[in-house]
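Minutes, methods subgroup
Present: GH (chair), OT, SY

1. OT presented the first of two proteins processed in the latest run. Sequence and structure tokens recorded below as shown on screen.
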Amino acid sequence: MKLGGKVALVTGASRGIGKAIAEMFVREGASVVITSKDPKRLKSTAKEISAFAVIADIRKDIQVRNAVKTAIDKFGRLDILVNNAGIFPKIKKLHLISEKEWNDVIDVNLTGQFRFTKYAIPHLQKHGGVIINISSDAGLKAYENFNADAYTASKGALVLLTKSWALQYAKDKIRVNCICPGVVETDMTQGFLSSLADREILNAEYPIGRIGTVEDVAKSALFFASDDSSWVTGAVLPLDGGESAK
């Protein structure tokens, strides 16, 4: 077990990528705290994967702070933080986006990651640890007709923050790395996969010949969380079947 004795907190883990990461960490021996603002789904997922659930809306500072405190109260320490929670906006060109729509995405996808990291750092500083940011290949390059500017901005910022945090906290033995998935099949991406033709078009975009799975992301997160990557910090992993290399 690669994570035996470790305590991990995974945000946005009631479904999709977060759930897959949390489940893999549990299998690898970690005690895992999962957060979400959906109580019913969070409770169900926690029971299914044997994780500890804490309801937390990433947009609310007091709930984020309480989630980290609850994890510490329950397990006595924190070794791994996975900043996974995120939302995807309606596709619109920039001049059609309202300021509220912009702010809603930035608040969840960027400021929310700041909140969880801020409260986790003092605990990680005690004995070292790992922060894994889940960004997107949309944070690495611009894509034609991908009109989701707030999402792109938030994911691009998270890439650079990964490098900044890695340098800030290296002396505290805190490693900070980032995973940038392409399209991964989750309920969030079902709108892009509504037909076989849509799926085939998306698969063809990737040199490997397929879109991603949540297990692809979970395996990469395990690498960054474990001692297999003990000399890796500030790394940004394009996890997109070669698409961003084009």
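2. SY then presented the second protein from the same run.
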Amino acid sequence: MPVELKKDGDFAVLTLNRPEALNALSFSILGDIGRALDEVAAMKDIRALLVTGAGDKAFCAGADIKELRNRPLIDQKRGAELGQSVFAKLGTLPVASVALVNGYAFGGGSELALACTFRLASPNAIFGLPEIKLGLIPGYGGTQRLPRLVGEGRALEIIMTGRNVKADEAERIGLVNAVVEGDLMQAGRDFAGKFTRYSLPVLEFARRAVQRAGDVTLEEGLRIEADLSTLAYRTADAEEGMAAFEEKRKAEFRDG
């Protein structure tokens, strides 16, 4: 199976499993990813999603270029919309996602990582949006998500030159949360464990508030924050958290 989904304790793990093709994307595989994410959204007993690529050479080397050629204009647009809609599902999941970038993350591979909530990278990870070298621009969300992470000027420079960004630079500019040595999957579990012990509904409120920050004015964003923080107060977990603080004990959140 080119896309595998399994449960690993508190986590769902989505693996692109085409190591012989550097886990490259096809339209069929995009559809498989979308269906896998729908399954994740329906899971009731997970606390985060980990996304990775099989093998040690590539997270995902991007689109299958052969599929992109000699297609009617409407099919080109539908292809971009498919990639965008599939990757957008990561932002609407009830749990956060962590991309574990092992090796190449080019084109659609970088865009898949960008769509995740967080990104961890192995020291050999290399990011790139090289579409400009083909006479194209990123089409699966790269032009929108990259500047939100690294700023407009740096995003334009990366996109307009098509250059590679190695792991150490990616960490320095905020493209990844951390570069980790050793077992990347275990590092992903450990990283996610830092927040998954808290209330899942309240974690989702926090994600929603921050996600909207780049889409609305400050005034509107503050209204959204007020609404979501008020909803957080209405949860049983908020009552437990505040009571635990006053009683000087560890809170026992129950996701309610």
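Chair's summary of item 2: DSSP finds eleven helices and ten strands in the chain.
Next meeting: continue with the remaining queue.
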